[in-house]
Specification:
heterodimer, A: about 350 residues, alpha/beta, Rossmann fold, five-stranded parallel sheet, B: alpha/beta, seven-stranded mixed sheet, 12 helices, globular, binds thiamine diphosphate, binds magnesium ion
Amino acid sequence: MVDGMLGSAVQLLTPEGERVADEDYDISLSNAELKGLYRDMVLVRRLDSEATALQRQGELGLWASSLGQEAAQVGSGRSLLPGDYAFPTYRDHGVTWSRGVPPLEVLAMFRGVSTGGWDPIALRCAIYTIVIGNQALHAVGYGMGAQLDGSSEAVIGYFGDGATDEGDVNEAFVFAADFNAPVVFFCQNNQWAISSPRERKNPAPLYERAAGFGFPGVRVDGNDILAVMAVTRAALERARSGGGPTLVEAYTYRMAAHTTSDDPTRYRHAEELEIWRLRDPIERLKVFLARQGIADRGYFDQIDREAADLAVMIRDGVRSMPEPPAETMFDHVYAEPHEQLERQRRWLVDYESSFTHEVSS
Amino acid sequence: MTTMTMAKALNAGLRRAMERERRVVLFGEDIGRLGGVFRVTDGLQKDFGEHRVIDAPLAESGIVGTSVGMAMRGFRPVVEIQFDGFVYPAFDQIVSQVAKTLRRTDGAVRMPLVIRIPYGGGIGAVEHHSESPEAYFVHTAGLRVLTPSDPQAAYLTIQQAIASDDPVIYLEPKRRYWDKGEVDLDADPFALSPWHARVLRPGDDVTVACYGPMVRTCLEAAEAADCSVEVIDLQSLSPLDIDVVAASVRRTGHLVVVHEASSTAGLGAEVAARVSEECFYSLEAPVLRVTGYDVPYPASRLEEHFLPDLDRVLDGVDRVRAF
Ligand SMILES: Cc1ncc(C[n+]2csc(CCOP(=O)(O)OP(=O)(O)O)c2C)c(N)n1
Ligand SMILES: [Mg+2]
């Protein structure tokens, strides 16, 4: 339980790296698991900064930064069992990382060589949803399907604070409650929806909305990976055991611009950033690991080297991503043969090759 | 005359409309402090206040639905949808209420709404940010649909759209936002009706009908063509001003219709059908369409293959002449 703004948020690790107790939630992780979480967060942050740099160099069309939200994303993503299913937004690079989505497959859409990027069935992680809130309903429906199949999977649906305005998210709450769907709604309240400030606009705590729909809601310190895991694991377990939906509000902060196209100096003050920098999710786990003697300098250096290698892999990988042939735009529009489209495909191929001939002859 | 971008011209037009009529309110996501993601409403909240330039919650059905209520109360809401791909949550309100309220109230309740939508591709955007949804709206009786192609047209038509007592879907070609042009800020927006096609370049051999983002492309193609090409900016997609197109075709005998949107059941199909009804015997060749393919808008690295460009327009011109 913590200071002012966070209100009644569950916290197990203070910003100073102090382990504290909560009345309702606790977690016990092995040293290897703790070190793994640290590694995940550092690598995800590196992926993010590398992608931001690549966008500036013109190698990506756009990037939505996850900076500052690593604990919320990795903590919840690592709480999933292999058989569970995740529905992320465009910002949830820590979630896709946790599901084992290869970083280059995440970057493919932002580079503009793919409209999705990975196999959502094999990885049990949906592709990024960009239309705000759509995926909340998909998560519920997937959960309803699991329920009909008599399976004990849980589903997690991610969305932002802004998305809670959308009809789709509110309808998802209704469906989840009516069908007691095995779903966890994971809302990252990063305080901003582009230029729209969450609490100045509507100070009612988001997690409290769940009660009105008929299921529990809980606010967690979204920059405390231990608390995020404790709360998400409990919610997933509740879903698996037939207890129905839970809304988790991870209270965090969007440290970067909305996307690389955005200019946040137009709408928010730098002081806010300073306050949140002190609550950094990686730093507090690092302090904790060091103080407890769980990890030492050597370990942290090793992770930094791994991050540097990852950055090289990402840079090279993005730059050498194959350009898809033009005619692939006709692929997978329909599952079954479609003669009209095939004619258009042939037309495009003939038309474009008429230029190649001119050039080469 | 002042040189300005289309985004600035729209901003100036919105400002004029707000000065003219105090019941004009702007409503949309991030339009206030931020000035909209394309800065079209830049500075308007500062000058007109938060009660007239309203930052809306992130909910398109909500924005349009509450605008219907505001319109019933005598306001003239000008809605901004952030990107083409995000208008669909509002589709129900637009089709079921915005378009039909006048009729269903036997003319008692007007819907003087404007729904501004940046549309089309060409800016290397990610998924859902490059769509051309005009045909859905054109197909819906009760809606008017306008799309400007240059800063001067933008400055005038946005004011005309706001003054209209009918709901107007106002489609802004986003890749032309930064194109500059001469704008006469003193021009009277009500001197001319916006519901007309405009002949932008006269020609004798082939008529090219286009609108929005494709107008510049077609003008460039006409310049490069080895025959005389007449370029018509349709501007008003509903109502469609077929008379101007038919008059041109009666002289040229050849028609190519160009748009970014997919071809099937698009504006090209409508123009072709109407022209063949109006002046079948003047046509020396079938009407040709140069359009996007019938696929979802592709990943951005492929968009140049999807979007009609100068070469594809010229190819259309050549083919219609060679028939
Ligand atoms: C239906 C829809 N409307 C508008 C947008 C444009 N848009 C993209 S992100 C965003 C803000 C989302 O805020 P939030 O849900 O808090 O998520 P965050 O970006 O902060 O992670 C908006 C308005 C969109 N993608 N989809
Ligand atoms: Mg947010």
